[in-house]
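Quick one:
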Amino acid sequence: MVRDILAGRKPLVLQKEIYLGWAMLAGIIIGLNLLSGTIGLIILFIVIIVLRMCSVHFSWQLPRRKLISTNERPKTKAITTTN
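Output:
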């Protein structure tokens, strides 16, 4: 992340891919001590790598909220009243 910021690029973990999601999942599993021991951590490592490879192969992406710029706002009709 620091490398990307120093290079003037958007950090890889903030891209639309699920890279950050898999890293957070592994961190939560380790942080909550759901897996312990060397074998458990190796299995977690392999699972996270396989999920990352699947997300690249199948083009899985995080949902994005479409922002409306000021030029793209839908035009509304002005309501006028006649007397």
